[in-house]
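Entry, Tuesday afternoon. Goal for today is a structural model of the target with pyridoxal-5'-phosphate bound, before we commit to ordering more compound. Inputs were pasted exactly as handed over by J.K., no edits. I checked the ligand SMILES twice against the vendor sheet because last time a stereocentre got dropped in transcription.
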Amino acid sequence: MTKLEQIRAAEARLLLSTYDRNPILFVDGEGAYMFDENGTKYLDLLSGIGVNALGYNHPAIVETIARQSRALIHTSNLYYHEGQAELALRLTERTGLDRVFFSNTGTEAWEGALKLARAYAGLRRGEGARIGTKFLALEHSFHGRTFGSMSTTHKAKYREPFAPVVPGVEFVRLNDVADLRAKFSNEVCAILVEAIQGEGGIRPLTQEFFSEARDLANSTGALLIVDEIQAGMGRTGKWCAYQHYGIRPDVTTLAKPLAAGIPLGAVLCTEEVARAIHAGMHGTTFGGGPLACAVGIAVIDTIEKEGLLAHNTEVGNYFMGRLRSLAEMHGTIVDVRGKGLMVAAELDSADLAKLTVAEMLKRRILINCTSDTVLRFLPPFIIERSHVDTAIAALDEIFQEHTAAHSAPAGGKHNG
Ligand SMILES: Cc1ncc(COP(=O)(O)O)c(C=O)c1O
């Protein structure tokens, strides 16, 4: 039995079967590449689902982890350490919000955002405002797997096995302003959006829809909450995707690349919303520990030192340009969209999308497929044009082979 086979057998016996893993055992990484146990090199265009923003073995991250782990890894939130305020300052300066709560994961950050909305609505009711407890979320949204996050996530398959979910959530059709207006009322405490939906298929909000959500929320004192867990931290060429729209949310959430693979999430809000929280209302044992915060600081400093916001825009535009040229040759690509290094190529067939991911893997390139037909690329911020060229050449070959196989005369195999 190979080591991989042993591990697969042990996992099959010992773990809950939540994941349908690819049969690869990764043991190492460098730059934009990972290596399996045989030393085979894979180009990573998914970066651990948008987490490993600085790729693998980045000296700034490795050195920070080594230094900080020699000092302190965990303190609990009963005491001060040097990292939280320093990271919070960097985040507030870059996101335009005022205050931060640190969590461990994306879903936990989103739970914090939902709790803030309910607490703030309660505060406002106490002050005489007419405001309810309902959430408006969007169709195709994804906010995580814990109860509140799952309840505000649109896909039924994520919610139904765990029913009853948290009540008081209504879904609005994506970018349908009339539907948003019809469902909005004084009952709503928050409108929940991703500026660019990730799991939903890299679907951006329209300016009109986003602006309307901001205006409606302003009209009653409801909150506009933007989930930047996948799109944020510079992936789209700005620190937050909402900054492309010139919109300031009341609350936002960050996670995935925040500490380059060390679990860390954050909820950020305005000074006004922060009034709703006082000591003891919310908390976490691990969130915002010294190690995670030190790495978070190093991530931001490295993104700036290496000019990665502009780089993401430049390489992302190049990537989308090359995908658009590919779409001219292969009608199976029906749309190319994205921002910076959050890139999608939508195909006309779910089967082909699945096959393409598998064929890319055979060619040692990691991507995935979301929303059935959408090839999703969330590469590390350090990729270069040459990595894009490698991916485009592989996709071209895969689509050519697919076309050849499907345009062969019926029964051609046997006749030929
Ligand atoms: C937009 C968005 N929100 C929330 C989450 C949940 O984050 P986590 O998996 O860290 O709990 C994800 C994860 O994919 C996400 O993409």
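The longest strand covers residues 333-339.
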